């Protein structure tokens, strides 16, 4: 009998989820490109007058929206690559490391640079410091996640919760002033004195020990499944007709839900301490 050779490299079924992760990385970096173009065109606005000024202003607004849209696309791709890997049984350590690297860039570096070019560059020193905190804290959160991925003692995970705000959600919270600015055009939303502390808050939430709901661990009650499907249809229709209004509402709802997730985990912790059996996955309505 011929000795069997050890298999080398990645199995073919692992290529598809890793390719989606790479696309998410490309999408996040493409957002930075559009932000750079938007900032360069804004510098040319002072040289134009009349119809040319209006046309270039519209192009600038479109480029800012595309910069943020590519970060959101990266978030959508990040949400499906893991599920596809589990569906194809293509999980690998390489894919996990690539996913963390892509998340650090797409939801840390890219939003930080976009916010810096959009607003924070007007605030000397402290603006760049806020951008650095957003990028570095996203990387620190992912490093903490990788370090604890094989740990046996993870109270939040065993109860169906996450530790801190996940990187995609943190990027969405950091970009909330831009979401609001796109449809309100309120100048105060672009003020670095508002954007800088908001970016710092989003960065701190990512590295915090706050218990947040894990959407993959949630289980819907049987009597509200029809309402959940109707809610998904309504959100999808709203995202098509008024995308920036929709993402603003989703980000705000997620922020308002944080106190409820903290209270829910505290309740689970109390029940465990008293010896009462609890379910690992919290059953909550889809609006929570």
Offer a concise description of the structure.
This protein is 70% helix and 2% strand. The chain starts with 14 loop residues before the first helix and ends in a 14-residue tail after the last helix.
List keywords for this structure.
two-stranded antiparallel ribbon; 70% helix; 2 strands; 2% strand; mainly alpha; single chain; 288 residues
Helical fraction equals 55-70%
Name the average pLDDT: 85
Could you give a short account of the major beta sheet?
Answer: 2 strands, antiparallel
Binned strand content: under 5%
Order of helices and strands: HHHHHEHHHEHH
Number of strands: 2
What is the terminal-to-terminal distance? Answer: 61 Å
Uncertain segments are 280-288
Helix and strand content put the structural class at mainly alpha
Instruction: Report strand order across the widest sheet.
Output: 1-2
Give an overview of the whole structure.
The protein has 288 residues and is mainly α. Helices cover 70% and strands 2% of the residues. It contains 10 helices and 2 strands. The chain is globular. The termini are far apart.
In terms of topology, how is this protein built?
Blueprint: H1 15-44, H2 51-87, H3 93-118, H4 126-147, H5 155-158, E1 161-163, H6 167-174, H7 176-184, H8 192-207, E2 211-213, H9 225-241, H10 243-274
Helix pairs in contact: 1-2, 1-3, 2-3, 2-6, 3-4, 3-6, 4-8, 6-8, 7-10, 9-10
């Amino acid at each position: 009998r011929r000795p069997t050779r050890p298999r080398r490299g990645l199995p073919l079924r692992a290529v598809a989820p890793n390719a989606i992760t790479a696309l998410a990385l490309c999408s996040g970096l493409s957002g930075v490109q559009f932000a750079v173009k938007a900032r360069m065109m804004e510098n040319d606005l002072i040289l134009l007058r009349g119809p040319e000024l209006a046309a270039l202003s519209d192009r600038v607004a479109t480029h800012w929206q595309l910069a943020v849209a590519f970060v959101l696309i990266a978030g959508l791709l990040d949400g499906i690559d893991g599920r596809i890997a589990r569906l194809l049984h293509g999980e690998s350590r390489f894919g996990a490391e690539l996913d963390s690297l892509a998340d650090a860039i797409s939801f840390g570096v890219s939003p930080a640079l976009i916010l810096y070019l959009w607003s924070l560059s007007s605030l000397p020193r402290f603006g760049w410091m806020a951008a650095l905190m957003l990028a570095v804290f996203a990387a620190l959160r992912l490093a903490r996640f990788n370090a604890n991925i094989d740990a046996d003692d993870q109270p939040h995970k065993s109860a169906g919760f996450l530790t801190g705000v996940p990187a995609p959600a943190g990027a969405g919270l950091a970009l909330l002033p831009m979401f609001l600015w796109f449809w309100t055009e309120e100048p105060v939303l672009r003020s670095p004195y508002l954007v800088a502390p908001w970016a710092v808050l989003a960065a701190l939430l990512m590295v915090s020990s706050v218990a947040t709901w894990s959407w993959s661990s949630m289980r819907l009650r049987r009597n509200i499944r029809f309402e959940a499907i109707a809610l998904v249809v309504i959100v999808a229709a709203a995202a098509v007709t008024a995308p920036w209004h929709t993402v603003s509402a989703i980000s705000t709802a997620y922020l308002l839900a944080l106190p409820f997730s903290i209270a829910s985990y505290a309740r689970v912790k109390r029940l465990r301490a008293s010896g009462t059996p609890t379910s690992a996955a919290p059953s909550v309505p889809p609006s929570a």
